[in-house]
């Protein structure tokens, strides 16, 4: 291809067939460069982070634009203003200079209408990320992001930078290409006009060198420079490095959405995606990117936010225990509600109500629907029962054996092979990851059956029966939260939720009957049972 001239090429004026006037518009295509970086056995290609770092270096030799937009291979630009809007934040005279990146929310196409697996993640994007704007800004989410180039180079924000960028002694940090290092000061000047470069042999050679695996040997790429390596979620840590240096970021949301992409609507794929994120979060906690080790430039509450982002899978071990708790009272005559029942329930209801009232306000402020919020609650419980404990297990293994986690790419919807747009939603791929949640489902269905059986055995209007049935509410609540999961593992049958309800009623009835058959006390024993119940040390749920 011949190189385009630097002279603008104006389009044709409006005519009968073409009502648009292009006589004042430069119609040359912007420069488009396709790259294939070197991959070599013995070198970890570092997936997306490796690809981004090569692009960062190569683009420095081509346009060296001070701002860089990044979006995933499965995302696209959906709004022609998407590149202009973040510039308002970058060039803002108030704190634009210190803004390292502008993050858009992720929006998705072809998610099923009721968003069964919370793919839209609206609470996270429109609630959590937006609210971080009040601190140091949202975390970097991997796609739909505009960066300031020098922030990616690991430079300090102007607020903390004594003078202009010093390059002496930086050779080891950035690799050996002098042309790349010489390009760096220009990459910081945001008013610079960009002229197309002439790709001659010398430049081609430079570019080829910058794309090799060996280029990064002994440099800081992948740690203090560029996207961060050796972690399943390079995005959060890369953003974290900037925040800890004192940069801020900005959340930017627009209608129609600036960027859109695809999301996995298959249950197994979705769980694997969440496994990668939660595994990556834990890896972050046990790495040099631990938020506790960041310096004073990290806002105190931002530090708390990052700590939460990197430890949440650990917390859910307790939730799993809570969900399995009914096992205790399936096999023993213990209640699992603390007595005095009334006072305990009162505190519990008050605390839960407060959490949910706050949730409602946040949902309202964020402008999202109640359904988004319900899906968020449900998917949290689904993740908490199977995925997060698995992530914790992986992390423990990694700490002991030193072997990293292998994470697969999120596989994309395969709508082409079916008339049904949401075919993926009804495909079940059985994997061990589904097991813990299935066990929780079974235990809680059985607990509901046993509760009804116990109540029936004692007579429905006794005090004991009342306690047992109230205790059952906890099991029912877990079942409500796991409802999307139950539909998911039913595959095609999940298209008719009625079947699930019939099966549920049958299972509960069966357990109830079995309980009554096995445990129905003889009339003479009733007083004895009641007495022992009165003494039983009563246990409470821990969740
Ligand atoms: O070897 C690889 C693997 C991935 N990619 C890119 O990385 C993107 C993200 O991978 P994907 O499988 O789509 O994962 P998702 O779970 O959809 O991605 C989310 O989570 C990732 C972190 O786990 C972030 O990097 C992404 O930006 C974010 O959208 C892909 O679209 C590709 O563009 C590469 O360039 N090379
Ligand atoms: Mn993706």
Quick tags:
mainly alpha; 3-stranded mixed beta sheet; elongated; cellulose synthase (UDP-forming) activity; Nucleotide-diphossugar_trans; membrane; transferase
What do these coordinates show?
- This protein has about 550 residues and is mainly alpha-helical.
- The protein has a domain at about 310-540.
- Helices cover about 50% and strands about 5% of the residues.
- A 4-stranded mixed β-sheet has the order 1-5-3-6. The protein has a 3-stranded mixed β-sheet with strand order 2-7-4, with no helix packed on it.
- It is elongated and about 90 Å long.
- The N and C termini lie far apart (about 65 Å).
- The relative contact order is 0.11.
- Residues about 530-543 have low confidence and may be disordered.
- The structure holds uridine-5'-diphosphate-glucose and manganese (II) ion.
- Uridine-5'-diphosphate-glucose binds near residues 143, 232 and 276.
Say how many strands there are: 7
Low-confidence stretches: 529-543
The share of residues in extended strands comes to under 5%
Q: How would you state the average pLDDT, rounded?
A: 87
Which class do the helix and strand fractions yield? mainly alpha
Number of helices: 17
Main sheet properties: 4 strands, mixed
Ligands bound to this protein structure: uridine-5'-diphosphate-glucose, manganese (II) ion
Strand line-up of the largest beta sheet: 1-5-3-6
Helix content: 40-55%
Distance between the termini: 65 Å
Overall form? elongated
Topology pattern, helix = H, strand = E: HEEHEEHEHHHHHEEHHHHHHHHH
Subunit organisation of the chains:
single chain
Radius of gyration: 29 Å
Keywords: Cell wall biogenesis/degradation, Glycosyltransferase, Golgi apparatus, Membrane, Transferase, Transmembrane, Transmembrane helix
Membrane topology: Multi-pass membrane protein
Protein name: Glycosyltransferase 2-like domain-containing protein
Region (Disordered): 1-22
């Amino acid at each position: 291809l011949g190189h385009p001239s630097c002279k603008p090429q104006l389009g044709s004026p409006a005519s009968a067939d073409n009502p648009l006037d292009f006589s004042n518009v430069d119609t040359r295509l912007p420069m488009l460069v396709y790259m294939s970086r070197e991959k070599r056995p013995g070198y970890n290609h570092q997936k997306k982070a490796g690809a981004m770092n090569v692009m960062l270096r190569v683009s420095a030799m081509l346009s060296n634009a001070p701002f860089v937009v990044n979006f995933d291979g499965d995302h696209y630009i959906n709004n022609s203003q998407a590149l202009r809007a973040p510039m308002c934040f970058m060039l803002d005279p108030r704190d634009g200079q210190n803004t390292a990146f502008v993050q858009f929310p992720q929006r998705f196409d072809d998610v099923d209408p009721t968003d069964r697996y919370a793919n839209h993640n609206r609470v996270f994007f429109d609630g959590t990320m937006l609210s971080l704007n009040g601190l140091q800004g949202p975390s970097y989410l991997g796609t739909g992001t505009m960066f300031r180039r020098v922030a990616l180079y690991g430079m300090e924000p102007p607020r903390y930078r004594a003078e202009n960028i010093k390059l002496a002694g930086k050779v080891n940090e950035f690799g050996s290409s002098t042309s790349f290092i010489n390009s760096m000061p220009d990459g910081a000047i945001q008013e610079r006009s960009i002229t197309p470069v002439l790709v001659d042999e010398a430049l081609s050679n430079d570019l080829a060198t910058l794309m090799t695996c060996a280029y990064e040997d002994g440099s800081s790429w992948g740690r203090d420079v560029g996207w961060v390596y050796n972690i399943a979620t390079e995005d959060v840590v890369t953003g974290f490095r900037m925040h800890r240096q004192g940069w801020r970021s900005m959340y930017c949301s627009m209608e129609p959405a600036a960027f859109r992409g695809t999301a996995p609507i298959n249950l197994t794929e979705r769980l694997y995606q969440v496994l990668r994120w939660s595994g990556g979060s834990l890896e972050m906690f046990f790495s040099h990117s631990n938020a506790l080790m960041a310096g004073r430039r990290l806002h105190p509450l931002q530090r708390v936010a990052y700590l939460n982002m990197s430890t949440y899978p650990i917390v859910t071990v307790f939730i799993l225990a809570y969900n399995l708790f009914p096992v205790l009272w399936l096999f023993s005559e213990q209640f699992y509600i603390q007595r005095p029942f009334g006072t305990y329930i009162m505190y519990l209801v008050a605390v839960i109500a407060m959490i949910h009232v706050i949730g409602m306000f946040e949902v309202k402020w964020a402008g999202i629907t109640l359904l988004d919020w319900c899906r968020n609650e449900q998917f949290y419980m689904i993740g908490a029962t199977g995925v997060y404990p698995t992530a914790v297990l992986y992390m423990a293994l990694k700490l002991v054996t030193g072997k990293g986690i292998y994470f697969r790419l999120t596989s994309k919807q395969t709508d082409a092979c079916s008339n049904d747009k949401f075919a993926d939603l009804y495909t079940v791929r059985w994997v061990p990851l589904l097991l813990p949640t299935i066990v929780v489902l079974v235990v809680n269905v059985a607990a509901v059956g046993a509760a009804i059986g116990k109540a029936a055995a004692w007579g429905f209007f006794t005090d004991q029966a009342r306690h047992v049935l109230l205790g059952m509410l906890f099991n029912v609540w877990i079942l409500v939260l796991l409802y999307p999961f139950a539909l998911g593992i039913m595959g095609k049958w999940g298209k008719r939720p009625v079947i699930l309800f019939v099966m549920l009623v049958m299972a509960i009835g069966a357990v109830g009957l079995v309980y009554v058959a096995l445990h129905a006390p003889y009339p003479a024993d009733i007083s004895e049972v009641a007495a022992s119940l009165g003494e039983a040390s009563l246990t409470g749920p821990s969740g």
